[in-house]
Amino acid sequence: MSAIEQLPFQGSLPASFFTIADRVYADAAFRPQEKPAAVEQLFRAEAARNDLVLYTDHRHLRLVGIFPHDGSDAHFGYWETTDDLPLNEAAFGLLRAEARRRGRVRLMGPLNFNTFYAYRLRLGAPPSWGQFDQEPANPAYYPTLLQRLGLAPGLTFESRLIRADAVPAAYLNKADLLGALQQIPFDFIPLNPDTWRTHETELFALVDRIFSANPAYRSISRAQFEQLYNPSFAAKLCPHTSVLFRDRAAGQLVALSFCQPNYAPLRLDPTPPDFERDYPRLPHKTMLAKTVGVHPDFRQQQLMSYLGAYGMLRFRELYDDAIFCLMRADNFSRHFTDGLPAETAHYALFEQVL
Length: 354
Known about the structure:
Blueprint: E1 5-8, H1 20-24, H2 36-46, E2 50-56, E3 61-68, E4 73-81, H3 85-101, E5 106-109, E6 121-123, H4 141-148, E7 152-162, H5 167-173, H6 175-180, E8 186-190, H7 193-211, H8 222-228, H9 231-236, E9 243-247, E10 252-261, H10 275-278, E11 286-294, H11 303-312, H12 315-318, E12 321-328, E13 343-353
Parallel strand pairs: 4-5, 11-12
Antiparallel strand pairs: 1-2, 2-3, 3-4, 5-13, 6-13, 7-12, 7-13, 8-9, 9-10, 10-11
């Protein structure tokens, strides 16, 4: 077994950090999408509010211990490894010892700093769709390794594929909701690069307000937000099903729904997807319902369901089927597809009490 080095982050990552994934995913149909310069930039930004320690043998395993300055938990992220239990026992043993030395009460991950970035593991065999944009995808042995190391699923999530033959039943099921949609006291703002530019300041605040109570969420700076969510991001969204709701009385944005086609069959990486260019090229059109949320002050008004109904207005003319993506198992959004036959993929964020 290779020796594990414990390396506090001091402004740069070793070159081996980015080659370990090559070995792990050599025979896989998927792999993490990492740009070394962007990853190092993120590490440097996050080092201001976390102590960061890399555990690695430089060939078969990398593991980052993340110790937030303002929390009682320790997180682990950027974990990639070959199927080697003793090697992982050594690395996680060092991480747990450091976490206990710092007085941390729980270890949780994989979590790459924040829920804005990659986190969670996919459980079980790959689903029929392979991997959609930013879906957690990992070797099947990853969850088994973590469980053998004493970690267990904490937060759980799921994605549901609603196939074409279930779509008619969905419209029957939601007929009343669709009929009432035009009567609610909210304006609908379709999302595209132009409307994104117009509302980006409000959008930044709305996203933070909607998701700030979610477990493992930490606010990010406006600059970090705009690196991920910007007009280029909006260009890949479906402008016919993605929407902002604005309360007419208050004049403020209160809900959002980000939907996009599943561009995976086009193998565009590293070219960013663009709806206008790429949607017509798709041989099979699957809509991904990616991010849906309602401002806390406007919940209990069925807005989550109305966001789903808005997406249905033009769905049948545009798409063959839909995947409702990465819904937390205890989140209300999951209920929109209850009762419909679906293929389901499961995910988890693992944890261990120290």
